[in-house]
Amino acid sequence: MARVFTLATALSFLVGSAAGSTPGSVRRPVDLPGAVAVLDPGGQVAARLPVDPAGTRTAVPTGPSHPSQVYSGNGVRFRLPPGWRVDDAAPAVMTRLQAPGAVMEVYVQDLRADLADARTYIEYGHRSVLKQWNGIRLLGDESATLAGKTARIVSWSRPALLRLQEDRRFYREIDLVESPRLVVTILLKATESEYVAAQRAQLDLARSVVPDGSPPRQQLPDPPAGRDWREWQGRTPLRWEVPESGLIWGIFDPLLAPGPTWNYAGFREYEKDLGVRFGVLMTYQSFGQPFPTAELEMAARDGRLVMLTLQSWHPVERERVYSEPLSLTLRILSGEFDEYLRTYAQAAREWGRPFFFRLDNEMNTDWVPWGAFQYGKDSELYRQAWRYVWEIFRAEGADNAIWVWNPNDTAFPNWKWNHHTVYWPGSRYVDWVGLTAYNLGNSNPGSRWRTFREAYGPPYDEYRRLYPGKPLMITEFASHSGPGDKAQWIRDMFEALKTDFREIKIAVWWNGTEGPRQYRLDSSPESRRAFVEGLRDPYFVNPIRFVGS
User: Fold this and answer.
1) Are 10 and 20 in contact (CB under 8 A)?
2) Of 63, 71, 205, 220, which alpha carbon lies 20 to 30 A from 361's?
3) 198-248 per-position pLDDT tens digit
C-alpha cells in the first residue's frame, strides 16, 4: 500500500530532529575552517585533512595523458583515487567505485522536479542514522566547505553481521550541495581495517567531483539466469502451465488471512455472489508465523495457486514505521532467524505443491521497515538478505517456492539511492518480476488520478528491458473511488491489459480498504458491474490445474 511522500512529512521530521530526538550522546567533530576530520572506527578523530574552503575544486586532469585517472558519466566527472576502480555492472542510477574492503556510491540528485530541497534531501535521507535506528551508532556529523561548496559529512557504524563474508559496516557520507536543487552524494562503506584509508580516498574524490551534464549510463539488462520458467515447469511433477496468451486473475481479500481469520468458505460465497472465480489468491504473513500448510492445501485442492507474501517485521500501526526502528534485515544477516526460516522452508518442501513466494515487497519505500530507508540507505543489505533467505530455501529443498521480486512503481522518497534497481538481487534469485502501482486518486495529499496506462506503462516497459526472460505479474493493485469514474477506470484497465500489456500473465486486485483509500472492486454497484463484465472476456482465463490433483 502506498502513501505519498510530501514536503510536510519531511519537514515534520526536521522539526523533530532539531528538537533533539536523536538518542544518546553523539560525538560531533568541531567544524574547523579548512579541515575535515577523518574518524577511526570508534569515532575518534584519527586525522584532520586540509581542504581549500574558498578555492576551486582540485583540477581534474583530462586528455590522452590521463586516460586511467578520470571518470566522466552519469552527470559527473571526478579524479579516480589510486587503487579504486569503477564497477561497470552497477545500477545506472549510481556510479560505484570499489577497492579492497571498501565501496563508494556516487549519486547526482537533481531536485528541480521534487518537493524537497537540498536540506530536506540530506536530513530525511539520514533519518535512520540521525535517530540511530536498528543498532546504528552515529560517529560524527559535521559541516565543511569543500572547493567553495557546502558539504554535510555524516559518519556512522552498524552492528557486525555474522553471515556476511566481507562486512563493510563503517560508513561515511559526503553530501555536496551544488545548488539548493542539486546534490552530489558520495556514500562510503568500508571494513574496519580499511575505514580510515577509505575516508581519505573519499575526500580526494569529493574535492575533484564536478557535475558535468554527461549523459546517464544506460542500465544494462540483467542476463537471464536461474530457472528457465517453461523448462522448470515441464520437468517437475508439480507442473503448472503459464498461458501463452491470456491473463489469470487473482485477488487479495481480508477473508484470506492465514490463521484464525482464514475464512475460505466465506470467500467462496463472495465469489459465488459476484459470479466470478479467481485463479490466484494473495495473502500476507509476517516473521514468526508458521508456513500455512492447511490454508495452501485448501486452495490447491480447489485448483488455485496462492501468492504468499512474507514480510520481515512484527506488525505495528503503520504510522510507527516512520518513527521507530522496526527493521529485521540486519538481524536476518546476523543469523537470528535461521531456525525460523529453516523450519518454514522445510514445511514448504514437505507440502510440496508450487506457490508464489513474495518476500519483502515494496522495498523502495519509506513505509516498510525492510527498505534501506530504515538502515542507513545501504540497499546492498536488502539484496544480501534476499539471497540469504533464498539459499536457506535451496538448502532445505524447497524448490516449489516461486520467487517474486516486487518493488513499488515509484520510489518514496523518489531519490536515486532508493531506486528499484539498487534492490535487484540478481536474475538467479528471482523467478517472476512483480509490478505494483495504485490509482490513489484524491485519497492522499499530493496524489492524483492516474489511468491504468499512465500507472503501468513506464514500469512495464522498463522491467521488460531490464529483466528479460522473467514472466511479469501485477502482484497487487486497485483504484480508489474518487475523484474520477472508477467503473470507467476498470473498463479501460481490462482493455489495456488485453491490448497493450500482453506480457503480464497474472493480475491481483487488492480488494480491501486502507484508511481513506476505497479499493474494493464492489465499492459501488457500477464498479462491481464493470469488473464482473470484464472478467467474462475469454482473454482472462483460469488455467490453474496441478498434475495429480
Assistant:
1) no
2) 220
3) 999 999 999 999 999 888 888 888 888 888 766 666 555 556 667 778 899
What average pLDDT is seen over the chain?
88
Contact call for residues 543 and 283 (beta carbons, < 8 A):
no
Per-residue cell: 293 = 500448510
Mean pLDDT along residues 498-511: 96
Tell which residue, 388, 360, 357, 359, has the closest CA to residue 374: 360
Instruction: Give the Å distances, CA to CA, from 183 to 71, 208, 304, 420.
Output: 18, 15, 49, 20
Give 28's pLDDT tier (boundaries 50, 70, 90): low
Closest CA to 280 of 255, 308, 305: 305
> Is the pTM value of this prediction over 0.85?
yes
CA distance 337 to 341: 6
The cell 553523539 sits on which residue? Answer: 26
In which element (H, E) is residue 308 found? Answer: strand 305-311
Q: What backbone phi and psi angles, to 5 degrees, belong to 531?
A: -70, -50
Spatial contact of 81 and 204, defined as CB atoms under 8 Å apart: yes
Q: 3-class SS at 408? A: coil
Q: How many Cα atoms sit within 13 Å of 452 on the Cβ side? A: 23
CA distance 418 to 185: 13
Looking at residue 452, its amino acid is F
Q: Is the dihedral of CA 457, 459, 465, 471 positive or negative?
A: negative
pLDDT confidence of residue 62: 44
Dihedral sign of CA atoms 8, 12, 18, 22 in order: negative
